[in-house]
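A reminder before we start the practical. When you read a complex entry, don't treat the lines as separate problems. The point of joint prediction is that each chain is placed relative to the others, so the output describes one connected object in space. Small molecules and nucleic acid strands, if listed, are placed in the same frame. In the example below there are two entries. Take a minute to note the order of the lines before looking further.
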Amino acid sequence: MIKDQQYLKKIADICLSKSKKLGSTDANILVQSSVSENVNVRNKKLDGSERSENLGVVLTTYLGKKKSSIASSNLKESNLDELVNRCIETMKITPEDEYNSLPDKDLHFKGLKDLDLYDETHLSNEDKINYIKEAEEEAFSNDKIINTNGSGFGENKSNFLLANSNGFADGYKTSQFTAYCEVVSKSNGSMERDYEYTSKRFYSDILKPKQLGSIAAEHAVKKLNPQKIKSEKISLIFDKRISKNFLSIFASAISSSAIAKGTTFLKDKLNQQVFNPEINIQDHGNIRKANGSRYFDSEGIAVVNLDLIKNGILQDYLIDTYNGKKINRKSNGRASGTTNLYFQNGSKTFEDLIKSENKILYIKETIGHGTNIINGDYSVGASGMMIENGEFSYPVSEITIAGNLNNIFKNITLADDLEFNYATNSPTMMVEGMVVGGK
Amino acid sequence: MSSLLKNSELTSEKADSIVSETLNNCDDGELYIEDTKSETIVLDDNKIKSSNYTSDLGYGFRAVTGDTVAYSHSNEISEKSLKNSSENLKSTLKNNSGTYNSEIKKTNQKLYKDVDPIESKSMKSKIELLNNMNEYARSKDSSVKQVTASLLAEKKNVEIIRSGGELLSDNRPLVRINMSVMVEKNGRKETGVFGIGGRQDYDEYLKNDNWKKVCDEAFRIASTNIESKPSLAGEMKVVLGPGWPAILIHEAVGHGLEGDFNRKKTSAFHDLVGKKVASDGVTIIDDGTLDNRRGSLNIDDEGTPTERTVLIENGILKNFMQDRLNARLMNTKSTGNGRRESYKHVVMPRMRNTIMLGGSSTQEEMIKSVDKGIFAVSFGGGQVDITSGKFVFNCTEAYEIINGKIGSPIKGATLIGDGPSSLKEILMIGNDMMLDPGIGTCGKAGQGVPVGVGQPSLLINNMTVGGTQL
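Here is the predicted structure of the whole assembly.
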């Protein structure tokens, strides 16, 4: 069972009062409790089950402008004593940093908690196993599916309390139901794997098992017997599961920490054209039941809705208290990163996009970590499908795609098929003229 | 007697009896208890940005029968909590029945000292070191605009209690010293990253002002990259430098030789034991027994002593890397590759120090033999798709080779290849085998574990290089 707010509050109070007694001027504490249960099946047979119970604290103490942190899962009072002591001792010898402080009291979250982020539904292991077996059975009804890498179902419940010595103390429960199915297809000596994944706060919102299995199977079969293509400059269409990655890259490039340090290609681009004028990007934390929704960030600051890109122009950064001070801006509640980050729908349909040129490469998967936030260079391995005259023709693999994000961002055309499946969501995306490395 | 349970409400005797009773009808399993202390101190943008100390104590209780694994973990160490876990394991395995295999090899292996790297260097001297690194790196050139330096130390004590009360333990120190330098020149920005580490006290890595070499190397890479030009795209010959570029071996073949993917027949290598999978002269081992190395362990996380496992010998596939579960199901023995990130994670076959042994060629000969290609000296991250065998790497330091000579540095190059076929494309093996500096972390199924790699210079006949120039 996850611990209730009262229990978490008790631990928080113990730590806060100990740190005050030992001489800290300010303190911030997070107490978290979670329980997750996962089952895995493989080839329609139970492969394993896992139950985890986690309880832990993270304490940060301040002495004026000096700061130090400890974290622990061992909440015995004798251990907490020792740790708080250690935290205070370290803090005393750590050099001052003028930007260290608790967040601005006026920005603390004080509103109603009405976003429906917790579903108390509990599935027995039996039900979890049945769900995921049904998904695999559906996948195996496709005769080219010969094996699975394993499929799983997970249920996670958590509760937390965040408190600081300025009087903030709040927390809430969240839930997450997750299922994935990863299958292996085989034909004419070619073997490929692919997956489908669903994750929602409410059990009733996740994909039905049959959908999960059939989509995974379809993905894996479509990849069979790929060809390698010649190196060339070609327009790319990014499948929705990949196009959202460009939003994550954008988010890390406008974090106040990167902006303050100057380690991002989007430094000094505020109020400038970063995307083409049809592009709008929003980060909304208050969407009911959504994966990325939250009331406040890890400093207790209320999350406000941000229009990050309006008509292609950069309007705002993602700001926390510490880095905000460095760049002379107030926090906008993004110490824990983005919330529900998305591109607004474009004006073209998916059909329009795939028919817009004679030859387009459709990217279904990228591998590697080839994004350089500092200068915007982007180069990753990829696989997908060739589109010829508006029709998907053959799978493509073992290629690379490369470009610079400054140019990529200005050459994006979006379809109108946005869905809120994850915390970060994008419609299908076309980017003109990227370089493919192949034969 | 367990020493990790010493101050808890759970007695060793009670733990033994719950473990034995729970695992009675299972093929395998254990109670894994872990006490980890870790400390991270980061200097960023001229300031000590954070000092974090973490103390984590918990257990993971595992029962295995057939190919089904039940796992339950908690950081509440009490009789009640362990009994709950026991009930949970039993309910998963209620329809299965097995015979407990109590056989496990013993060892007196001591590959690293039982030191505590967090306590053996004072906080004051750690902060001083970071400040020195920052000042030294910034003083190297006015083009240095940003410096991030960090110190990471960990002491992980683990105990494994098996059915019948057998107790196995290991105390594992680990440190890492990292440096990242950003230089800016003519409106261009590039970074260079370097680090060192292993299973010893900080001071062992700081002898002879070694920290200056870490800064020098990060600065050198950043300064090289600032002069780099865009990379060509297409198929070409590739010369790999010695040491860290062996993460290519780790990705391209290492993962595909882990027991689980082969037992499940999802690896491109699963039916190739005894077959030729690499060029003549290619010998690849996975060695958990190198003194003080980041990937070394006295015993793995199931209690099996680590060993030097030959994976590929002179081009022929010999062995997979096994944990106990996959070894049993494949009728072989564990090779001591059963590892987990922490008590919160299930055991899987994982690499330790994966090394390709040296040959007889020189790096010069390799470069001379290439008309058009690239010379890759260092890589950032890599990734592999085990099933299709495709892998990628991002070069963090690379040069073009034109007519047998090293040319300009090139930027942002990605290498992509096919694991099983690229091993057959190795044309020359260098006589300069080198281990990496001790910074690698391997990710698999969401779990990160420290690993090492090593290799000599290699000439690969044909790989696809990704870039922006056609």
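Discuss with your neighbour: The CA atoms of residues 62 and 71 of chain B lie 5 Å apart. What might explain this?
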